[in-house]
Structures are given as C-alpha cells and as structure tokens.
Amino acid sequence: MKVKRQQGVSMILVALAMFALVATAALAVDWGIIYITRHKLQTYVDASALAGAQELTNASAARQKATETYARNYGDSFQIPPPTPTPITCPSGDPDVQPTTICYQIGNDTVQVTTPYRHSGDPLPNPNLINVKACRVVSLYFARVIGVSQIRVCAKSTASNSGGVMSLIE
Questions:
Q1: Please, are residues 51 and 71 in contact by the beta-carbon 8 Å criterion?
Q2: Alpha-carbon span 36 to 14, nearest angstrom
Q3: Is the dihedral of CA 159, 41, 61, 89 positive or negative?
Q4: Residue 99 in 3-state DSSP?
C-alpha cells in the first residue's frame, strides 16, 4: 500500500517538472522572436540614421535618405521590393516624438525620423543630429496562454554629422 502511494507522488512531481520544462521552452521561443526582431530593427535604424546623417545639410534630404535606406533594408530582409514609405500621423503620447519628427509606415513598421533632433538635456534641436526610431508589433506563440498575444518591439538610433564625419551616438 505504501509503495503505490509513493508512485502517485512521483507522477505528480513528473507532471510538474514537465509543465515547468514546457513553460521554459515556450518562454525561450517567444523571447527569441522578440530578441531577433529587436536586433533586426536596431540594424535598420542604425543604417538609416547613418545614411540620413550624410545629408544633414538639408533636413528634408536627410529624412528621405533615412527612410529610403530603411525601406531598402526592410525589403532585403523579407526578400521583397522595398516598400514605399507612407507618411502617417505620429503616435500621440510617444516621448520620442518632437516637433521636427515625421512618421512613416514602411511595410509593417512604424518609423519616426527626427532632424534636427533635440537630445535629452539639450535646450534646442541640433541640426547635426538625426534620430530614427522604428517599432513593429510582433505576434507571440506561447505567451497567448497567459493572455499576451502580441508585443510592440522598438529600436532607435541617433547619428551625427560633424565636419563630414558620421557617427552613431546612441
């Protein structure tokens, strides 16, 4: 009688261990999707900010170069022709939106290009800075069990053009 009782406890412990193992694997899959998306977005915004920085003598040309570069990288990543950047209304309440920010829809991504850019703590926007921020809504697979079906992933980059030398600041 005592042996059967111990076998029942073992089954419960094995079931709990299996649940923990599956939950950990599910977390790893969803986290991996978020991480890869964030990495791709960071690559896109870094390249876009540097491309826009080359044209900082003209804010409009800098924005155009940044959005074209973003669209080209987006298209290359998905093996499609570069999508046309479409101007949209910037999201209200976003702390990164400044008076000089113009927002675009590029594929499934929302892209904000700001130049001149006012770095936090600076009193005025700096015409030698360009900031590019991109966000994408990512569908999750296993987090749906706890009620989270998607998450917004963002990345941003600021580049400067100082005497013809382009560099990333953040």
A1: no
A2: 33
A3: negative
A4: coil
Residue pLDDT tens, the chain, 170 long: 455 556 678 888 888 888 888 778 778 888 999 999 999 999 999 999 999 999 999 999 999 999 999 999 999 999 999 999 999 999 888 999 999 999 999 999 999 999 999 988 888 999 999 999 999 999 988 877 778 889 999 999 999 998 878 788 87
> What ranges do the domains of the chain cover?
2-168
pTM of the model: 0.85
Long-range contacts made by residues 98-104, C-beta under 8 angstroms, separation at least 24? 98/125, 100/59, 100/125, 102/63, 104/67
Burial class for 148, CB neighbours closer than 10 Å (0-12, 13-18, 19+) = exposed
Q: How far apart are the first and last CA of the chain?
A: 67
